[in-house]
Design brief:
By secondary structure, this protein is mostly helical. The protein has 2 domains: 47 residues, no CATH class; 50 residues. 48% of the residues lie in helices and 0% in strands. Helix 3 packs across helix 4 and helix 5 crosses helix 6. The N and C termini lie far apart (62 Å).
Length: 133
């Protein structure tokens, strides 16, 4: 009785997307149901790099402090999305930086009406919310 191949061409074709999402070799192997060493060999043969995007490391001794509520919320959303809390936090920060969403996320700048692009739309002005640090 022959074993069913786990790492088919179709499955291997999806590995670069998993690497780009920030998953490490062990996480990818676990998700695909194979050993890490098998994944490394098969990707090497197929010419697929398992090196992820360069990661920015915080300075040694510097940590991010999050409230219990924030950690619980990140955990729940990460579980729903099928990723780790660290990956979700990284994706959020990447999106905020890429799309310039700092003011929108922090609610630190009043909304300015864009009457040129949306003339018939009514805009609500929000009062700035005081951030607690």
């Amino acid at each position: 009785m022959a074993r069913t191949a786990i790492l088919t061409r179709e499955v291997l074709a999806g590995v670069p997307a998993l690497v780009e999402q920030g998953l490490r070799k062990g996480d990818i192997a676990e998700r695909l149901g194979c050993k890490e060493s098998t994944l490394v060999v098969r990707c090497s043969i197929a010419g697929i790099s398992l090196r992820g995007p360069k990661r920015l490391q915080l300075r040694p001794g510097v940590s991010l402090t999050l409230s219990r509520e924030t950690i619980a919320s990140l955990s729940a959303r990460a579980a729903a999305d099928g990723c780790s809390e660290v990956q979700l936090a990284s994706d959020l920060l990447e999106t905020i930086a890429r799309d310039g969403l700092y003011d929108a996320v922090l609610d630190s700048a009043p909304l300015a009406p864009d009457t040129e692009n949306f003339p018939a739309r009514t805009y609500l002005q929000r009062a700035p919310v005081k951030r607690v640090r």
